[in-house]
Design brief:
The protein is mainly beta. Helices cover about 10% and strands about 50% of the residues. A hairpin with a 2-residue loop joins strand 4 and strand 5 (about 70-80).
Length: about 270
């Protein structure tokens, strides 16, 4: 399985990133105002596994940086295969996004990856005056520009944008959230369905979660359009607790393994 495919959906919570105000007649549970669900110093680590077999680890972190004389957030997503999986298919992926602190608007994105011999090293700078993404393909010494939407998000900034902007109180079972992602010089549309609340047992205790079903195109890897499920903590942090993807043979899961620097208390119930 291409680790990249699952990694994209895992990081995802997640934007031609334009949040629709309505989808198939269902009002999307978003508000124009925001409430910060994270702060600098937040770090999340996830274990990706196939049954008891550890396939890889992924982490998400956010810090403050200076970009063009402005204080911004820099988010970093890292994914690496481990153990036996690394012997058969080495993955070393690093994604970085600089985004506006209050509007969570991407300013610069970098992607430096190695996936079983496939490599890519790209930097994207967003020009909102001209609504373009200026792409620097560092590996191939190639420059290009692509038109973007006014409210564009990238793969990583979307994760933080949605945590800050979706209104928990407005969520109703079977509501859809429509999301579009600008990724790899193209626009990708996704939709997620809210399935309700569910308790999830973790190594830390039981966590009450929002349960979502992202709808994705079936094909070479995922067995059908409903094969991915996401659980997000039902608290002010709104962090991913678990992701499960059904494959043609078995399933692969990502579980929260470690965390630090959360802005709000992490609500758990001690497992019996």
């Amino acid at each position: 399985m291409r680790f990249r495919i699952f990694f994209i959906f895992f990081i995802f919570f997640y934007s031609k990133a334009l949040i629709s105000q309505e989808y198939e007649g269902v009002k999307a549970p978003f508000v124009s105002s925001s409430s910060d669900s994270f702060k600098k110093g937040e770090w999340l680590k996830f274990r990706l596994h196939y049954g008891f077999f550890n396939a890889s680890y992924a982490s998400l972190s956010v810090e403050e940086e200076i970009l063009k004389n402005d204080v911004v957030y820099k988010a970093t997503a890292i994914g690496r295969t481990t153990g036996i999986a690394r012997l058969f298919f080495r993955v070393d992926d690093v994604y970085e996004t600089y985004f506006h602190k209050t509007r969570v608007k991407p300013l610069r994105s970098t992607r430096n990856i190695y996936e079983g011999g496939y490599t890519k090293n790209v930097e994207i700078n967003y020009d909102y005056l001209n609504n373009t993404a200026n792409i620097n393909d560092i590996k191939n010494s190639k420059l290009s520009s692509v038109s973007i939407q006014e409210n564009v998000q990238d793969l990583i900034s979307t994760f933080y944008y949605l945590r800050n902007h979706f209104n928990i109180e407005n969520l109703k079972i079977n509501d859809f959230i429509k999301i579009t992602i600008f990724f790899d010089a193209d626009n990708y549309n996704f939709k997620m369905q809210f399935l309700g609340l569910e308790d999830v047992k973790t190594k830390f205790g039981t966590v009450n979660c929002f349960k979502f079903r992202p709808y994705i195109e079936s094909g070479r890897v995922f067995k059908d359009s409903e094969s991915l499920t996401l659980w997000v903590s039902n608290d002010q942090n709104k962090i991913p607790i678990k992701v499960k993807a059904g494959l043609r043979i078995g399933s692969i899961e990502a579980d929260l393994e470690q965390f630090k620097g959360l802005k709000f208390p992490f609500k758990i119930k001690i497992n019996d």
